[in-house]
Each structure stands twice: as structure tokens, then as C-alpha cells.
Amino acid sequence: MRLLNKITLNLLAITLFIFLIGMVAFYYMLREQVDQNINLELQKRASNINKIFDAAHSSAKQTVNLNDTVIITQLTQSRKSERFSDTLLFNPETNKYTLFRQFGFVKTIYDRDYYIQIFKPLEETDRLIIRIVILMNLLVIMIILTLIIANRHSSRSDWKVFYDTIAKINNYDVNSHEEFTLHNSDIKEFDDLNRVLFTMTERIKNDYINLKEYIENASHEIQTPLAIINSKMELLLQSGDMKEKQFKMVADAYEASNRLSRLNKTLILMAKIENRQFPESKPVNPGIMINHQLESLEDLIHSRKIKVIRNMDPEVIVQMNPYLAEILLVNLIKNAVRHNITGGDLVLELSNSYFKISNSGPALQMDPEMLFKRFHTSSSSPESLGLGLSIVQKICAMYGFKVKYNYQNYMHAMQVDFLKA
Amino acid sequence: MKILIVEDEKPLSDSMVEYLAEEGHLCEAVYNYFDAVEKIELYQYDCIVVDINLPDGNGLDLIRLIKKQSITLGIIIISALNSLENRIEGLEIGADHYLTKPFHLAELNAHLKSINRRISYGGSNQIVINEIRLIPDEHKAFVHDQEIILTKKEYELLLFFISNKNKVITKAGLAEYLWGDYMDLADSYDFIYTHIKNLRRKLLKKGCEDYIKTIYGLGYKFELN
Fold first, then answer.
1. Any idea which of A71-80, A95-104, A361-370, B87-96 has the lowest mean pLDDT?
2. Is residue B6 predicted with pLDDT exceeding 90?
3. Which of A98-112, A280-294, A375-389, B159-173 has the weakest average pLDDT?
């Protein structure tokens, strides 16, 4: 249904409903009022009859009933015409002047003109009019109020789909693995909008997936030629019949192709993390992994006179893929060792809710946000791919962990919160 | 050791054959699944190096077939696919190692040496190079019959050098052998330098000859006269 039709129909339905109820109410109220008036009239007539009877039996003076009063005046010269007018008459019963409607007309009797005036009190009809006005006003106020309420209600229900769509688009993430679904609506415009949005997001998603697959396939296809290049150069390096200059050139080329291999492998890993290709999740003890990693870096830590301070709960268990857990921890630990200073501290804290690793070092020269950007490396280590912390962030994002960086008291601290926010 | 190499990329296969032949292995190369099955049925091998993605079949099926015939045979998988499932599946059905392309020939060689030790001596063997003696099972090293205390990494390093003696060992190859894939290897070269310095010092202290030569800008060589 079109939005315009929907709104019109809503409005029509509401007004019709209120008018029907209003008409019935109006009819009964009016009826009641008229009945009351007639009753009053009848009562007055009854009292008049009583008075007439009383007057007939006694010498009491007959009261004047203005209702029945007819004033007849003989017209002498000026001719008067028929006319209605309002007039005040003294009512001896209530001792007050009251408003009357009068009608004057001319009657000719035996060639003489008489001007005849008859009266009807306005008091009761006045009351009737006031009642009607009040009723009408009430009816209008009721219509407006009901319309406002009904409109609000229908907005909330009819536009619900629209607001829902807006919220969904606002939170749309092409990388998300949840199905993008929009609610159906009985309104054509909203349905059209949802359909268009759905096709659009599907197309974006498909393009994105295609692109991603293309990159992945390319990365995989690169592996084999790289393997050939590397193996040939390795053989070349083993052959002793090269001059030093040539040897140096091959060595440089070999170094570069190795760098490319590593880069490619890391990018494939990151794509896999993004694609959630590590679904298997097990209880993992990070404490054991951390100690194991520290052991393998023991020599280096020792040679740089780094003091390792462990404050770890050995019982901590985290649910995650063991392979990814290892990659996460290794990258954090290596990072903290690499950027440490000779004679610095390496502080490791592990609890059920977080893992924090801190190392001594001078303050960062750059925006901490840049730390997690791909290919962002400090100039001091040109061999670094600058992907370590990117991997850390990817893994954390996959498990809903939060990574925080801060710098305090000459210590860089990386903290991973295991609890989902 | 008799080795069958099943790899569809001929240039890569050639490199492996050349490197391994120099080490004194007897290598045969086939380039597809069908030929590999034929060879396996006809001849006896000590070790097989197999690629998972073959033009006419899957390397994993080949491994299952081989394992039915001989249990002791060594198997090394080389694959461009570094998926964990493949790795786990490969190791579960009996492969000894899983190398991802691109890999270092020195690393392949080191793995083959360890397979060789396993199948020829049942693992309980020792490696003797002049005055150096290694007992791989116990991770122990001796110089002039005196034990030298090495860290785990230093021991692995020494074993790797001895496996690839008289070959140029690149720093990248060493790093990957010691720390595996995916590590940001930025300062692994520093790590390696530290390890080698310590290893050399420990060896020299016990009167061992200085076999480890530095090749400037590239790596090292374990040189026997």
C-alpha cells in the first residue's frame, strides 16, 4: 500500500469512528436537552392550569403568564409591518426582567388595524444553544486529541520498519558475517526502500567478497612462483663460483624475495582471520604459552639485560583457537621485547579478565592509533613488516576482546581484555 | 636415503632434487598423482616429499595409500595452502612435517635428516662431526666428550647447522626454522645473532674448532675443512 493511501485511510478510519460515536452522543445529548425543555414547558403549563383553577375558586388575582401574553394595540396612523425582535419584559413571577423573543404582526379586523405581539421566552432556548456550543467544542477537542494520539500510535507502528531500516543501515558492516535482513512492511514505499537497500548491500557484499577472493587467490598463486625463485636463489648461493659482487646481488635479491614471502604469508593469515577460518575453539591456558614463549626468547632477554616481572595467575583459561592464541601472545611478547631498552623491565600481568604486557621505553613519536595500522613501522626497524599489531587487533576483534594501549611512567602497556564489552 | 618428490611445478622439483642430491640422497621426481602411485607400487622409498595440490589428485590421498604399504616411511608435505585443517589432517594421517610454500631448501633438508635418523637408527642415534657429538633424543651436545649446556634454541641451531654443513645458511632460513611462520621477523636477525654468538662462545670454550663462518650480509656457513 502506498504511504499516502495508508495515511489517508488511517485518517479516514479515525475520523469516521469519532464522528460516528460523536453523532450518537450528540444525538442523545440533544435529545435529552430538548426533552428537558419540553418537560419544563409542560410543567409551566401544568402550573398555569393549577393557577387558573385556583383563581376560579377564589378571588385571587390571576397571574400574568407572559408565555400566553398577547398584546393587541390599535394602530392609528403609522403602519407597522411584520417583524421579529428581542425584548425585555418584566416577569412578575420571578420579579425580574427576562429576555423574550417577540413577533409582531398586523391584523385588520372590521376595517381597523390592530398590531398584535406574541412572546416566547428565550431563556430556555439560550441554555440549549449554550449546551450545543459546549458539546460541539467538546466534540472538536475530542477529535483533535484522538487524532494526535492515533497519529502518534500509527507513526510508531507504521514507521517502525523505516526506523528499523535506518538503524540497520547505520550499523551495517560489510565485513560482518551476520545476515543483513530488513523487516517486511505493508507499506509500499518502505518495502521498495528495503528491497533497494537489500539489493544494494548484496551487491556491495558480493563485490567485496569477490575482491577478497581475488586477493586470496592471488596470494596463493604467488606462493608457488615465490617458492621457485627462493629455491633457485638458494641453490645459486650454494654454488661457490660467484664473484663477491655477484654474490652480494643475489644475496640482496634473495633477501627481498624472502621478505615478499613473509609478507604474503602474513597477509594470507590475516585474510583467514577475517574470514573466520579458525572456528575451532578450545580452553587455552595463556600462562603456559607465555612462559613457553619467554623461554624461547630467553637468550635475547638475557643479552639485553631485560628484567622480567611476572604477575600471572597460572589458572587462567581462555576459550579460543590455540593457534591464534599463540600468534596473539607471540606478537605481543616479541613487540614488548623488541621495543624494550637495554636494562629495561618487561612486566606481564595475567588474570581472568585481562592480559597486560608492559615494557620500558621512551614515549611514542606518533599517534597511538597508528600502532594498529597495517604496514606502519617505526623507522628504526626496516625489516619489520609492521603487521604484528594488526594481527593482534584482528584476532582480538574476532573474539570480541578489547586491546588498549597506554603510556605511563616510562612504560608502554598493551592490554587485552578478555571479557566481551 | 631414497626419496620420491611429488611436485607438479618442475622448476621447484628440480631445485629440490639438486639440493638433496648434493647431500647424497637418491632422488626421483614425478609431476602428477598417477605417476606417483605407479612409482610407489613399483619401488621402495625411505621418504616421500609430496605436494597436496596435484593436477590429477590430492597429495593427502597419496599419503593414505603409502601408509597402507609402509609405516616407517617418512613423509613431508609441501603446500601452498597453509590452512590449519590441511596441516592437522596431514599430520594426523602420518606426515612427519608440513612445510608451506615458499620454504627454504635448508629447512627441508634438516627435516629429511631427522627423518633419516628416525628410520635408520630408530631414533636412538648420535651425530658425530669431528669433535662434536649430538644425541638428538636427549637434546644433548658434547665437544671432546665434554657436555656443553645449550639452551633449546642453541641446540636447534647447532643441529640445523650440522644438517646443512658446508652450505650457505641464510638468516631468513634460520629464522623460519627456529620460530616458524607468521612471526614478524623484524628483529629475528638480532635474535639469531645473539644465539649464534652464545653458541659459538660455548663451543670455543670447550676447545671446539670455529666452524661457524659469517657470510657478510647474508648468513652463516658451518664449514668443515
1. A71-80
2. yes
3. A375-389
**Average pLDDT in chain A:** 82
Which residues from chain A sit within 8 angstroms of residue B189, using beta carbons? 383
Pairing of strands A70-74, A354-360: unpaired
Higher local confidence (pLDDT), A179 or A350: A350
Q: Who among B84, B183, B198 is closest to A299 (CB)?
A: B198
The verdict on B142 and B165 lying in the same domain is yes
Based on the fold, state whether residues B83 and B135 are members of the same structural domain: no
Query: At B73, which CATH number?
Result: 3.40.50.2300
How many C-beta atoms surround the C-beta of residue A122 within 10 A? 16
Q: Taking residues B92-112, what's their average pLDDT? A: 88
Q: Are B82 and A265 inside 8 Å of each other by CB?
A: yes
What is the interface pTM, i.e. ipTM, of the complex?
0.81
What mean pLDDT comes out for the span A314-329?
88
Same domain? For B8 and B116 the reply is yes
Residue of chain B whose Cα is closest to the Cα of A256: B172
Question: What are the structural domains of chain A?
Answer: 3-157 (no CATH), 169-277 (1.20.58), 282-417 (3.30.565.10)
Q: How many domains does chain B have?
A: 2
B154-159 average pLDDT score = 88
Same domain, B14 and B116: yes
Question: Which residues on A lie below 8 Å from B192 (Cβ)?
Answer: none
Interface test with B, best of A257, A299, A374 (most B CBs within 10 A): A299
- The verdict on B106 touching A (C-beta cutoff 8 Å) is yes
What's the domain range around B150?
Answer: 127-222
The domain boundary, picked from B121, B149, B184, lies at: B121
Q: Cβ of A228 and B104 within 8 Å?
A: no
Hey, of A236, A298, A300, which one would you mutate to test binding to chain B, going by the most B CBs within 10 A of its CB? A300
Name A90's Cβ contacts closer than 8 Å, sequence gap at least 6.
Answer: A96, A97
Is the confidence at residue B186, as pLDDT, over 60? no
Q: A5 to chain B, minimum CA–CA distance in Å?
A: 57
If asked whether residues B153 and B211 sit together in one domain, one would say yes
pLDDT at residue A142, as a whole number: 82
> B72, B94, B121 — which closes off a domain?
B121
Inspect the interface and report whether the beta carbons of A238 and B191 lie closer than 8 Å: no
